[in-house]
Amino acid sequence: MLQNQNIEIYDTTLRDGSQAEDVSFSVEDKVRITLKLDELGVHFIEGGWPGANPKDIEFFQVIKATPLQQAKIVAFGSTRKAKNSAKEDPTLEALLSAETDIVTIFGKSWTLHVTEALSTTLDTNLELIADSITFLRSKGRQVFYDAEHFFDGYKADPTYAMKTLEAAMKAGAERLVLCDTNGGTMPWEIREIVSVVKEGCSVPLGIHAHNDAEMGVANSLVAVEAGVSHVQGTINGIGERCGNANLCSIMANLELKMGRTALGDGKLSNLRMISHYVAEMANLLPNKRQPYVGDTAFAHKGGVHIHAVQKNPLTYEHVQPEEVGNQRRVLISDNSGRSAVFNKIGTFGVDLPQDNPKVQELLGSLKNLEYEGYQFEGAEGSFELLVREALGTHTPSFELLGCRIIVEKRKTDEESLSEATIKVKVGEVVEHTAAVGDGPVNALDHALRKALEKFYPQLREVKLLDYKVRVLTGRRGTGSRVRVLIESGDQKEKWGTVGVSENIIEASWQALADSIEYKLMKEQELKPKS
User: Fold this and answer.
1) What are the backbone dihedrals phi and psi of residue 398, each rounded to the nearest 5 degrees, phi first?
2) Which of 292, 439, 445, 462 has the fewest CB atoms inside 10 Å of its own CB, making it the most exposed?
3) Cα–Cα distance list, 329 to 89, 193, 309, 311 (Å)
4) What is the CATH number for 34?
């Protein structure tokens, strides 16, 4: 295997990624992501298809005046239409108007697409490729050529597929990017085809893989192994259908597993940051099970695993989490042993000898609570409160004296009304207030905050990020026990809390109260000791 080879990273999150279902980037989103990608160290950022929509037109106008450290902005489009000459083709004109130094255009490699999608002849398709590239080159643009459906085209007619590459190469294309557009090619096919193609090409080859067979990352890496030096993909693998090749996994594997340089200068440690940033901009929940960057990528739950990792992380971790900007997590559950609980307590900054009987008591309480339906893997806020209260190091900031929730529906076709009345005690002061909301839990949340914010104004920055309800057993029908998991956050961190009861309102109260109590506990820790 060739070591220390530099690999070009070409990000198409803003174009291909935006074609994913449920994803839509504003111009401002695209500019912000561009700056983050540039900071990460990717080499090329495909900004969109100028002329396809007003948003992409505006992006290219805005990004011209935006200083970048190293990344090159690329405009994307297609070859000319068969009915147009190159100089009169609107698509090519729009590419020029974007005023990027580099332009990527795609053309057809598969005879099926030439005859069925383009409804033209094989020779005409070769002319479209050559004319388009020649024209763009004559206007001073560097051209990357995306050979769409190349692997399907090669398997159907290798001679013609190679002719399309030759046409692009002779016309002046500086990269030939082999695309697995339908995402169905297997890694051994990629290796064989890339190896043959490389022998007949004098310009660098690229790979653009989709993930329809769950092979996007594998195919990209195999292509590199076979001689490709330019890799295209998206952050988190977002994209049309099943998505594109995931650059987060690709870049980590290139540098940590294959000895290639993708980003260099230690920038791989920003990988988790960019993954979560793009997810936030796309309004998507981060995939907690995503390799390298997900919350659970370095999370350990089994007692045997935890004990071993504490001795030597190599026992159950294939890389160091810090290399990709992640961190090790110890999950507390009924599978946990004494050492796991002790280790978790240590992360809270609690100085507790390992032989302290409180550790065993906490372990027993934990197992009993989980038997009742509590789950602390996603509710570490509730677990820390449990620990500190058991050790006597935390006093609750408020006390519930009572609450009442009224849900009223007057007519079938009208929305129901929810109002919560709550009475809490802070110190020696009793506060009694009410609030309405979009449902009983929302009303309870509003009422609790309204009652407490005059004592603790910092609660105004707490946001409820996620709310989940799970029925733990359906044997009792609507009387079944439920578990409520809440994720909250402020400007600094996120935390999870849990509640369990046969009454969904009671379970929600437990999780809501813990969420606020956790915030106040952390604020108290930050205050200077007198």
Assistant:
1) -155, 165
2) 439
3) 56, 42, 11, 15
4) 3.20.20.70
Asked if 142 contacts 105 with a C-beta cutoff of 8 angstroms, the reply is no
Among the candidates 327, 348, 363, a domain finishes at 363
- Between CA 383 and CA 376 the distance in angstroms is 6
Residue 201 within any structural domain of the chain:
yes
What is the pLDDT at residue 530? 43
d(CA 204, CA 158): 19
Is 122 in the same domain as 150? Answer: yes
pLDDT (0 to 100) of residue 333: 60
Q: Kindly give, in sequence order, each residue whose CB lies less than 8 Å from that of residue 395, ignoring residues fewer than 6 positions away.
A: none
Q: Could you tell me how far CA 284 lies from the centroid of its own chain?
A: 7
* Cβ atoms of 449 and 459 closer than 8 Å: yes
Domain count for the chain, please give it.
Answer: 2
Q: Which two tokens stand for residue 270?
A: 């920003």
User: Do residues 203 and 275 both lie within one domain?
Assistant: yes
Taking residue 157's Cβ as centre, other Cβ atoms within 10 Å add up to 16
- Strand pairing partners for 8? 230
Query: For the chain (length 530 residues), average pLDDT per consecutive 10?
Result: 76 97 93 96 97 91 95 97 95 97 98 95 98 98 98 98 98 98 98 97 97 98 98 98 98 97 94 93 89 92 78 93 91 60 66 69 77 78 86 87 91 87 95 93 93 93 88 64 90 89 92 94 67
Mark whether 245 and 173 lie in a shared domain. Answer: yes
Do 276 and 321 reside in the same domain of the chain? no
Collapsed DSSP state (helix, strand, coil) of residue 404: strand
* Residue 308, Cβ density class (10 Å: 0-12 exposed, 13-18 middle, ≥19 buried): middle
Please indicate, yes or no, if residue 357 is contained in any of the structural domains.
yes
User: Does any domain span residue 375?
Assistant: no
Q: Please tell me the distance from the alpha carbon of residue 204 to that of residue 143, in angstroms, as a whole number.
A: 12
- What residues contact residue 203 under an 8 Å CB cut-off, 6+ apart? 169, 173, 174, 175, 176
Whole-angstrom CA distances from 369 to 21, 158, 225, 334, 350 are 40, 63, 51, 9, 22
The pLDDT value given to residue 471: 85
CB-CB contact of 290 with 296 (8 Å): no
Read off φ and ψ for residue 233, nearest 5 degrees.
180, -170
Tokens of 398: 């408020």
Within-domain flag for 446: no
Domain that holds residue 14: 8-281
In contact, 329 and 300? CB cutoff 8 Å: yes
Q: What's the predicted TM-score (pTM) here?
A: 0.74
